[in-house]
Input
Amino acid sequence: MGKSGILYVVGTGPGSSELMTLGAVRTLQKCPVIFYPVTKSKSGQQKSRALETAKGAVDLGKKILLPLEFSMRKNDSLVYEDAKEKCLAFLREGKDCAFVTIGDPSVFSTAGKFASMICGAGFGAKFLAGIPSFCQAAASASTVLCQAEEDLHIICGDEWFFDGRLTNELSSLDGGTKVIMKMNKSLVQILLLTVELGIEEKCLLVQNASMDDERIIYGKDFAAFAEILLADESFGKESGRYFSVLICRG
Output
């Protein structure tokens, strides 16, 4: 029996192809098969930020590209299972596969579960780090996330807001910097929460970090920006709300 292939989970970084690592680029160049997550717009068009980022750095013209349509609103077990079987078939043939994911594979990524399933089937998986969006958000705003002896908290915004934990978490910034991500459903409410708690001047919001449509909103403008979002629900909905990072620093 020949040598089995390996699954490489490749972080493509925050969005700009220029910010992909050399290791990520070289790995995608050598892998003949690339899996990539997609989302559907209201018009039904499939979009993949990870694949578009990769295309800006690597010629994918001769690759086998396999889209995986994940959803944040339903059980994706069948999608994972189908992707696993397709990947295992290639690995058994000795072909290396890559799974591209935005940001870093270790932070809020669909790739972690997929890699675990492949490893559970007896095959190898390797992670290649990417620049996390919160690190790029801080760089875009030329600010520091934390220094010596300071804590850094990474928080899932939607989950923590709707179960009530976020109010307590933001009531005091003495415990270190709070970075809030994944606010697709609760962005407006969270911005207004910082105003209600009187901490907005210690916060900033970065949307689409490193991309052409990058936007930085400082705390003094949160109330006005929230009004814009409330008045026009479509404003920034396709990408801006999902690719939003809120940094609150005491």
